[in-house]
Amino acid sequence: MTAAHFDPWSPAFVAHPYDAYAALRDEGAVHFYEPTGQWLVPRYADVSALLRDRRLGRTYTHRFGHEEFGRSAPDPAHEPFHTLNDHGLLDLEAPDHTRIRRLVAKAFTPRMVAALQPTVARLADDLVTGLLADGGGDLVAAVAEPLPVAVIAEMLGVPEGDRPLLRPWSAAITGMFELNPSEETARRAVRASTEFSDYLRALIRARRTTPGDDLVSALVQVADGTDVLSEQEMVSTCVLLLNAGHEATVNTTGNGWWALFRNPGELARLRGAVDELLPTAVEELMRHDTPLQMFERWVLDDIEIDGTTVPRGSEVALLFGSANRDPARFADPDRLDVGRTDNPHITFGAGIHFCLGAPLARMELTESYGALLRRAPGMRLLREPVWQPGYVIRGLEELAVEI
To answer: How confident is the model over 317-330, as pLDDT tens digits?
Structure first.
């Protein structure tokens, strides 16, 4: 079976991958894709099960050496990126993942997230005020991008004057998560990894001396008996919170408003009952056009998917965007339904790597959409947007609107 419909470097595919996903689901449960050497998994049931399957892992180095696993060691020139990435929760397996997540959860608590709600609401309202004052503009640049960066910076305790550094660092680092990244992408990621790590190490040293009520101070102080987070683990945790948190929120905001503009009946329905429908609408917009289209896992032991054996040493590409549109799980899945209640989307993943920041992301999206729906009820699209070239993390270059 081939994956002829799958073309992640095509602008047309990136703009609308859903017809190709439907063809992949119809043709089979798993497809080998030669250009990346991955096994594509497009169906909801398989994606959901494999996210929880401990025969797969985000890394393999806890069990195998590179040569033993049939893989090449990373380029030594890229070491700063890999050191940063490999100590983050998203790319760890047990027992390291279990230990670090337990410690981080002691600092990044539901109470801390809940306490951010007034700040998130104020920041969202201020950004919408600016958009209204300008009579419109680029919704991505004016609202979607600055909100999650400001929230994470506030949570980490990054001084306001340093906050413009965060978005460029994050964008450079996450470029490495795309398929077959170029050497120039790698160089940018390495430089950003070094600069961001150095910045956070200095911030951590300052909080050891003068702790505050921010997350960095909490991470410095957290302990489980004699177990504490290393400085590298703290740095990687902070970077992951920024990268994963803001990329998801930025692109769910842009992609979601583009979906609403394309579905004026649903937009009018939502505007007419914001308080009632906003919770289900946020979940539906995350499902309908998820920002993370693909999540990759290594096969640590042979697995079988619908009769096809995928051998140890392979890499599977779990297609979240396809799974979230699978008619075997979602009724009329291509239809945007802001009141959809049966909606177990996997936008935040599942299993041990379920998104730690999901409650914060939901809060940011609720406040952002709520402010725009209530305060800019006549907001309309000026022109069809252009998509960024990335496929794995998929979002718009801009979304031009008029108030």
So the answer is: 999 999 999 999 99
Residues forming a β-bridge with 241: none
Give pLDDT, residue 5: 86
**206: its two tokens:** 């300052």
Q: What is the pTM of this model?
A: 0.95
For range 231-244, the mean pLDDT:
94
Are residues 120 and 359 in contact, defined by beta-carbon separation less than 8 angstroms? no
Closest CA to 278 of 368, 215, 194, 217: 368
Q: Is the pLDDT of residue 1 over 50?
A: no
* pLDDT at site 187: 97
Q: Is residue 1 part of a domain?
A: no
CA distance linking residue 24 with residue 40, whole number of Å: 9
Residue 266 lies in a domain: yes
Three-state secondary structure along 95-149? CHHHHHHHHHHHHCCHHHHHHCHHHHHHHHHHHHHHHHHCCEEEHHHHHHCHHHH
Instruction: Judge whether 6 lies within some domain.
Output: no
Task: Please report, for the domain that includes residue 113, its CATH number.
Answer: 1.10.630.10
Tokens of 271: 């505007």
Tell me the C-alpha distance between 260 and 272, whole Å. Answer: 14
Pairing state of beta strands 308-310 and 303-305?
antiparallel
Q: How confident is the model at residue 276 (pLDDT cuts 50, 70, 90)?
A: very high
Residues 78 and 84: their CA atoms lie apart, in Å, by 10
Tokens matching residue 72:
């090449």
Distance CA(263)–CA(337), nearest Å, equals: 9
Which residue in 243, 239, 246, 214 sits closest to 360, CA to CA?
Answer: 246
Helix (H, G, I), strand (E, B) or coil at 33: strand
pLDDT given for residue 247 in this prediction: 78
Residue 302: partners with Cβ closer than 8 Å, 6 or more residues away: 55, 309, 310, 311, 312
CB burial class (10 A; 0-12, 13-18, 19+) of residue 148?
A: buried
Average pLDDT across the chain, whole number: 95
Model confidence at 137, pLDDT cuts 50, 70, 90, reads very high
Task: Map tokens 């398989």 to a residue.
Answer: 46
Band the pLDDT of 307: cuts 50, 70, 90: very high
CA-to-CA separations, 228 to 223, 316, 323, in angstroms, rounded: 5, 33, 38
In a domain, 221, yes or no: yes
Q: How many domains does the chain have?
A: 1
